[in-house]
Specification:
With 732 residues, the protein is an alpha+beta fold. It is built from 27 helices and 21 strands. The chain binds manganese (II) ion.
Length: 732
């Protein structure tokens, strides 16, 4: 059992002058809270944190990490809290302990590669500080070393998790010795017989060939000396698991694996590495295709070395690895080798530390990232662009950063997305726009009658959710338009004595839609009418002769009016925004005909979008309050749209007066689109103009100018179309 003083000695050895008080304090704290606890082996629990701290000194970790090694199980396994840790040790150590506690709470069940990969990423993403992962690896390494005390199923489960998750993480971080030991230990518990057989054979091989290996070493050493290169030569069996993998993958027997022993030459410089390679290749014939230059092509985990296989004495193949001392150190310590200490033992500035390992992560993710993304990762976390969350069943799902509960819902199923009303995260209710965080357990709440909102598009992050929401909105709008188009047709057809329903059933509308409009079907024509792209008159024009469609009478003033009546330009883009659901069909109530600038309210109608009333409209009293929806004039609109407005003018019935009034309207920069006149018994003219105006202020100006026309008695804004009988557009 390792003693505290040994740990302290090791840390002060590689970090002279560092303040080691934190380690002593952590030892005492851990001893107190773990008091009375034992491991499965029956030993006092404290042995485990001590061994973990000792492994961390092997990685030459800073005093805070070593102290965290002593404290790592305190929050998870004792009554102590993270607040108490923070009080006693400050935020840095508390942050590390918290990270470890979080990781210890997630368990990995699945075996699929993709799941495992996501799980690895999640562990990395959850660890804002790379030291959390290194401490976790040390923790796992000691647990694996002492796995024998656990019951067999627990052994298998932990070994599987170690093999699938932690060994690959150690590999990615370039910590070769931990990766190797974790793999071999996992293999031992997952395949006990194979492991035992192989371990025995390798030991025998080592015994039998010991003299031979020494001889080869001697030859290499002599050759180096001959060429004036100083290098350290060693020969040792390759990793047990890697030998097994080779036997399995290449389906060969142990006897046929030639390079069980790897020779290693460690020199001072890169130049010498290539010199040694030349020496080896000129001494023994290289096996074609077996030379690998990991110096020129550094591995993703920073590993550098030259590997070659040659045909040695007696025709036996042997592998030689050539590297510098620095490369050797990195092969063992990986990211931990890049730990930088200032004089006095403190870790270098935080940014430098982050940069050092993020630079390695860049290497690691080389194939995926460009330099811009790298800069982003410098600013963000470890996987700043991804979050990993769990379904209630424990499946892992991956999302882009910023993804919401709605993204999660759509990832389950389109229907779940379309019907989601809320979510539970880690058992607590959250709003739909809740931003997912790695490690969250997410459950979606749905309701049959709920539908997506255009609002959602402002906070979803996954393209899947965006596509599905847009699709729903589009389909929904089309459905609304079809319903509206049908109603409009029924009404207008009826006015001309036609039965729309019968013609629809007979396929007449279908035929006209295809032949005359070139549309895909009858529904498309209804949708077009509903959207306002096609008028019912256009459709009737294909059914009735023109004379039946013509206006019933031409008023006496029509000719004058025509001079001022422009071609009606229809801009169907709504000048009104409906909160949450823009692009919805918006209509203006005829009863009050609101204009931009007027105060307005919206009401949701059955299948006809939203009807906009002015705030003072008397008909509001009759409308169900639940249907009310917030609307506003779209001030951000670039293209000017106009709205029809009505003006009632009472004047003397005199010649020329209409032209004067028309000129006044024109002077106010407005177009007349309709006109009616009534003569009263007192010989007064009541004139109704429909004009196109920008907004309420524009209308006010027109009224002002009309008021100045001679013989005009009274001018006012009229809300109802006198000739239309005052029916409000839209049903409620
Ligand atoms: Mn532990």
């Amino acid at each position: 059992m390792v003693r505290l003083e040994e740990i302290i000695e090791k840390v002060s050895g590689y970090s002279p002058g560092a303040d080691l008080e934190v380690i002593r304090k952590a030892y005492v704290f851990s001893g107190v809270v773990h008091q009375g606890q034992t491991r499965m082996s029956g030993e006092p629990y404290l042995i485990h944190p001590l061994e973990v701290a000792d492994i961390l000194t092997g990685l030459k970790m800073d005093p805070q990490s070593v102290a965290t090694g002593l404290l790592h199980d305190t929050v998870e396994d004792t009554h102590t809290t993270i607040e108490k840790i923070e009080d006693a040790f400050g935020p840095e150590v508390a942050g590390l302990v918290d990270g470890l506690t979080k990781i210890s709470r997630i368990t990995f069940e699945k075996k699929e590669d993709r799941e495992a990969e996501n799980f690895r990423k999640m562990i990395l993403a959850m660890s804002k500080d790379i030291r959390v992962i290194l401490i976790k690896l040390a923790d796992r390494l000691h647990n694996m070393r002492t796995l024998g005390a656990l019951p067999p199923e627990r052994q298998k489960k932990i070994a599987r998790e170690t093999f699938d998750i932690y060994a690959p993480i150690a590999n990615r971080l370039g910590i070769g010795w931990i990766k190797t030991e974790l793999e071999d230990l996992s293999f031992k518990y997952l395949e006990p017989e194979r492991h035992a057989m192989l371990a025995e054979r390798i030991a025998r091989e080592w015994d039998v060939k010991h003299d031979y290996i020494e001889k080869i070493k001697g030859i290499i050493e002599a050759k180096l000396k001959e060429h004036g290169v100083a290098g350290e030569v060693s020969g040792r069996p390759k990793q047990l698991y890697s030998i097994y993998k080779k036997m399995r993958d290449q389906d060969v027997e142990f006897e046929n694996i030639y390079d069980i022993i790897a020779y290693r030459v460690i020199v001072k410089s890169v130049k010498e590495c290539y010199e040694v390679l030349g020496i080896i290749h000129s001494t023994w014939r290289p096996v074609p295709g077996r030379f690998k230059d990991y110096i020129a092509l550094t591995k993703g985990n920073m590993y550098q070395s030259l590997h070659t296989t040659v045909v040695g004495p007696y025709g036996v193949r042997m592998e030689v690895q050539i590297r510098t001392e620095e490369m050797h150190r990195i092969a063992d310590y990986g990211i931990a080798a890049h730990w930088k200490y200032k004089e006095g033992g403190a870790i270098d500035s935080k940014d430098d530390k982050r940069f050092a390992w993020l630079r390695q992560l860049l290497e690691w993710h080389k194939e995926l990232k460009d330099s811009d993304e790298f800069m982003d990762s410098l600013r963000g976390g470890l996987f700043p662009e991804e979050v990993f969350v769990f379904t209630p069943k424990g499946d892992i799902k991956e999302f882009p950063a910023g993804a919401s509960a709605v993204d999660f819902a759509y990832s389950i199923h389109t229907d779940v997305g379309n019907r989601c009303t809320g979510a539970k995260v880690n058992g607590r209710m959250v709003p739909l726009k809740y931003k997912l965080r790695s490690g969250d357990v997410v459950e979606i709440i749905t309701s049959q009658n709920h539908h997506p909102s255009k609002d959602w598009l402002s906070f979803v992050a996954s393209s899947r959710a965006k596509t599905r929401i847009r699709h729903w909105i589009k389909t929904d709008e089309r459905q609304l338009s079809i319903t509206l188009g049908k109603e409009l047709c029924e009404r207008e057809f009826g006015k001309h004595g036609l039965e729309f329903g019968r013609m629809w059933k007979a396929g007449d509308i279908e035929r006209i839609a295809r032949d005359a409009f070139g549309l895909s079907g009858a529904e498309s024509i209804l949708a077009g009418i509903g959207y306002g792209k096609i008028s019912v008159q256009q459709l009737l024009g294909k059914i009735l002769p023109p004379e039946k469609l013509a206006p019933k009478k031409v008023s006496a003033f029509q000719k004058v009016l025509d001079k001022f009546k422009p071609l009606a330009k229809t801009d169907r883009k709504s000048p009104v925004v409906v909160k949450g659901i823009d692009d919805v069909m918006v209509k203006f109530a005829r009863c009050c005909n609101p204009l931009p600038g007027d105060e307005i309210v919206g009401f949701i109608t059955h299948g006809q979008g939203v009807t906009v009333h002015s705030a003072g409209c008397p008909s509001l009293m009759q409308i169900d309050k639940d249907r009310r929806i917030d609307v506003a004039w779209d001030r951000g609109k670039k293209e000017k749209t106009t709205r029809p407005a009505r003006i009632e003018v009472v004047c003397r019935n005199e010649k020329g007066l209409l032209a004067d009034m028309s000129n006044a309207i024109k002077a106010a920069d407005a177009n007349i689109t309709d006109f009616h006149i009534k003569i009263t018994p007192e010989n007064k003219a009541v004139c109704n103009f429909e004009v196109e105006v920008m907004d309420a202020a524009h209308l006010k100006n027109i009224i002002k100018l009309l008021g100045k026309v001679k013989k005009v008695l009274k001018v006012q804004r009229a809300v109802r179309d006198a000739s239309a009988g005052g029916e409000a557009e839209g049903t409620h």
